[in-house]
Amino acid sequence: MAYSWFILLLSAAGAAFLLLLIQGTSLGDVVHERIPDRPRRRLFVASVSFFLTFAGVRAVVYAVLHNIPPFHFIEHDGSHIHHLVFGIIILLLVGYGWLADIGTGEDDSSILLSRIMSILYGVGAALTLDEFALWLNLKDVYWAPQGRTSIDAIVLFGALLAASAWGAPLLQAGSKKN
Fold it and tell me: Which among 7, 63, 64, 165 could bridge 43 via Cys, Cβ 3.0 to 4.6 Å?
């Protein structure tokens, strides 16, 4: 179970770091200035957490496969539980939360809650798409040539998130429009 706890700890630490950067530094001011609307800021936060989670998960799986302690695969009754299971659960919870208008800005929900939901969305999407090749092949091809499909899915979805968030609003001139 060290693998799952480490993934959870890694995701929580990354989320906390991202929230700290956005809430307590001048980077947060830049994000608010360059990305004025809440939906684009959610896309930005989801995009960053998506790429950070992908990199972290790949590093952890590499450590597991190379017997670097304390990492090992999660098993239950002899069956390997892939990290896409956790990603799907997170995506279901975030989807339900957004259906209930939690963290969407449609009600009085806080900006912090909006950012947490966005971070969780990025984490869940990365955990799920990192094993996209497993969906297609119905067998573990993570490091095999067929596993390249997962990388393609990550790049395509990551590009969609990044283009939606970082596109024109972030690259505009530094002044706010009144």
Answer: 165
Please tell me what DSSP assigns to residue 3. H
DSSP 146: G
| Cα separation, 165 vs 11, whole angstroms | 21
What is the pTM assigned to this prediction? Answer: 0.81
Residue that has been written with the tokens 């990365």 in this structure: 126
**Helix, coil or strand: residue 144:** coil
Domain ranges of the chain: 2-23+42-166
Mean pLDDT for the chain overall: 81
Residue found by looking up tokens 């009600």 in the block: 107
Assess whether pLDDT exceeds 60 at residue 24: yes
